[in-house]
Amino acid sequence: MCLAIPMRVTEVHGSPEDFTTSQIAIVDADGISREVRLDVVDHWPSVGDYVIVHAGFAIHSLIEAEALKNLSLLKELAAQMPEELLS
Amino acid sequence: MKYYDEYRDGASARALVAELRKVVTRPMRIMEVCGSHTMAIFRNGIRSILPDGLELISGPGCPVCVTSASHMDAFIAMADRPGVRVAIFGDLFRVPGSRGSLANASSRGAKVDIVYSPIDALDLAARHPQDLVVFLGVGFETTTPTIAATILAARNRNISNFAVFATQKTVPPALTVLLEDPELQLNGLLCPGHVSAIIGAGAYIPFAEKYHIACVVAGFETTDLLTSLIMLAQQIGAGEARVENAYARAVSWEGNTRAQQMVAEIFEPCDTQWRGLGLIPGSGLKIREKYRDFDAEVRLHVTLPPADEPKGCRCGDILKGISNPRQCPLFGNRCTPASPVGPCMVSSEGTCAAFHKYGLEV
Ligand code: SF4
Predict the structure, then answer these.
(1) Who among A41, A57, A71 is closest to B117 (CB)?
(2) Residues of the signal sequence (chain B) (predicted)?
(3) Second label for B181, Cα 20 to 30 Å away, from B24, B172, B175, B275?
(4) Residues A29, A6: Cα–Cα separation, whole Å
(5) Torsion from C-alpha of B237, B238, B244, B246, nearest 10 degrees
């Protein structure tokens, strides 16, 4: 049930404090644009950030730099290791 | 930019597999708590490359699977009431209660709608003012904030023909039950990704300390899972028991405080029944008095009927990690995804469904 792929935010509507407005972002997931709710997102995203979505609601937002940092750690780890086949 | 492709990169995965083989220096038992991890581990072929000595046990983290037969019967009875339209996540549709499923109720005329989000259930209520739309709340910490937000939206939009039958559960009390069980003998926990995005990696510190168990919060991609298993094996090999966060791109130490606050506004803890694990104190959530107008149990005077678990089904032992599906005599013959006997075969995150789909001798 958990969709782990972060989706890129292309539009943000509403304000984080005002729950009577529609708190909505438009996201891009592999070229398909979708609407997600921002009611319970941890940090209010800006256009260009990424969000992780569960059941139509963004639950976490991250900036590109965070995503890349995580990635470079993984790469470093991998680079120190010998190549070996899977089986 | 599609940076996440890198997390599926074959070359890094191979290097990580080699490293995992190196760090598993003694026999160890690790439980993957979350059903999405169970599925991801099978799908990525990780089960087939595990080094000897590393035993992976599936845990209770499939929300549909731990929903008791009694709750299923109450859901079905609710769908059968005139004037009620129930909205559910698709996984619940074919789960058997003690007499049939919501699918059976639907074919005899009950109104059962499958939705993608609780907010879709609220839109259904707006479109069907003559029905009371009841969202059947099944899920863990990740799902509950979305339900809380939907209840607040219902209030803001003045939609009064909407209610929630709340049976969501929280993971830490179930972990306590498992870790108290002398039969299980776990050395490590692969902690859920998106449950932890809400509750925070810090939530596992009491477990690491009290039960001396290594805890690593993991993401869902191949490299995430392999890295997390390496971290667990390193800790266990060194005799350590700490909480490490290998999914920092989604999970912080304190979690999503905004979602936590919204959940606390609408819900309060209660005792609830888990399939397989029994009644666990404080592991359920009920709607607070202040929001009783949105509580289907209050509005429709629900009582939970006593119910029998499906005959011969061993989901209970499987959810506790003490049996695996191959030890169930019904597995693959009387019980298949096309004709499931128990919930672990119905849900796309169920351990029996995973074993059946990926057909591995493990
Ligand atoms: S194989 Fe079917 S009957 Fe056996 S434990 Fe799994 S769900 Fe239950």
Answers:
(1) A57
(2) none
(3) B24
(4) 8
(5) -40
Q: Do B14 and A84 touch (CB under 8 A)?
A: yes
Q: What CATH code would you report for B65-170+256-299?
A: 3.40.50.11740
The token pair at A73 is: 């750690």
Q: Which residue from B141, B217, B212 is spatially nearest to B173, judged by alpha carbons? A: B141
CA distance B140 to B191: 13
Contact A20 B156 (CB under 8 A): yes
Q: What is the pLDDT of residues B12-32, one digit of tens each?
A: 788 889 999 999 999 999 999
- Residue B20 CA, chain-centre distance (Å), reads 27
Pocket of ligand 1 contains residue B313 by CB under 6 Å: yes
Phi first, then psi, for residue B297 (nearest 5°) are: -65, -35
Fold of A7-79: SH3 type barrels. (2.30.30)
- The lowest-confidence range among B51-55, B119-123, B219-223, B331-335 is B219-223
Q: Helix or strand or coil: residue B166?
A: strand
* Integer Cα distance of B321 and B13 in angstroms: 27
Residue B306's alpha-carbon distances to B74, B128, B192, B273, in angstroms, are 10, 32, 31, 11
For chain B, list the strands marked E by DSSP: 28-34, 54-61, 84-88, 111-114, 132-137, 162-166, 188-191, 214-217, 243-245, 267-274, 278-287
Chain B CB within 8 Å of residue A65 CB: no
Q: Which residue has the tokens 């999914």?
A: B247
Q: Delimit the domains of chain B by residue range.
A: 65-170+256-299
The encoded tokens of residue B173 equal 């009390």
- Judge contact between B133 and B100, C-beta under 8 A: no
Cα B90 to ligand 1 centroid, rounded to whole Å: 20
Q: pLDDT tens for residues B290-320?
A: 999 999 999 999 988 888 878 888 988 888 8
Residue owning tokens 């209050």: B298
pTM of the model: 0.90
**Cα–Cα nearest to B24, from B195, B194, B236:** B236
B67-108: pLDDT as tens digits: 999 999 999 999 999 999 999 999 999 998 888 899 999 999
Separation CA B267–CA B262 (nearest Å):
9
